[in-house]
């Protein structure tokens, strides 16, 4: 059997690497699809549970009903936004930070809403009320930081797209001699 040349050995190695990349890409997509299915099923289950909660709370105080409904809907929004993040990962094959920042913003807002209502019941319990107010303030700060980060990412992406469009416009323009 003739000995392989260095070029043939490099080609074989390249073929093995391409095959491994294809297999890993397929497995990565399979995991993302599984996550997407779990998120869709979870979202549907949360919607059904939300309708069930509304039916069971029809005789409860309006404040209780609104808090439970808002809490459940914000949780559904979190699931849907995570589903969007998974879809973005499947499409681009890279993790995009912005959907996860939005999930963090929604989670922070959800907790602020829940804590705000609970804080109203703790008004007479000084230390517990003060702790709830501090927690609401910290969550508010986290939401603002996450919103600022999402804004900066969006602006940077817009600037990058604009720069790419300007460069392609310059390439398409006729050259003056």
From TrEMBL:
Q: What is the lineage of its organism?
A: Bacteria, Bacillati, Actinomycetota, Actinomycetes, Mycobacteriales
Its main subcellular localisation, reduced to a broad class, is membrane
| Species of provenance | Mycobacterium deserti
According to its UniProt record, where is this protein located?
Answer: Cell membrane
Listed name of the protein:
Phosphate-starvation-inducible PsiE family protein
Q: Which domain of life does this protein belong to?
A: Bacteria
Membrane-spanning residues where?
30-49, 69-87, 99-123, 129-153
What is the topology of this protein in the membrane according to its UniProt annotation? Multi-pass membrane protein
Q: Which keywords fit this entry according to its UniProt record?
A: Cell membrane, Membrane, Transmembrane, Transmembrane helix
Say yes or no: keyword Cell membrane present.
yes
């Amino acid at each position: 059997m003739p000995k392989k040349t260095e070029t043939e050995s490099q080609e074989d190695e390249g073929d093995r690497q391409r095959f491994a990349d294809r297999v890993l890409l397929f497995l990565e997509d399979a995991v993302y699809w599984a996550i997407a299915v779990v998120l869709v099923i979870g979202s549907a289950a949360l919607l059904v549970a939300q309708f069930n909660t509304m039916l069971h709370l029809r005789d409860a105080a309006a404040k209780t009903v609104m808090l439970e409904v808002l809490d459940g809907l914000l949780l559904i929004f979190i699931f849907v936004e995570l589903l969007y993040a998974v879809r973005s990962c499947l499409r681009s094959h890279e993790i995009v930070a912005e959907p996860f920042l939005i999930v963090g913003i929604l989670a922070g807002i959800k907790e602020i809403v829940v804590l705000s209502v609970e804080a109203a019941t703790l008004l007479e319990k000084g230390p517990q009320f003060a702790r709830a107010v501090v927690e609401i303030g910290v969550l508010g700060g986290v939401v603002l930081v996450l919103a600022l980060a999402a804004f900066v990412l969006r602006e940077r992406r817009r600037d990058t797209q604009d720069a790419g469009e300007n460069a392609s416009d310059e390439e398409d323009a006729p050259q003056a001699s």
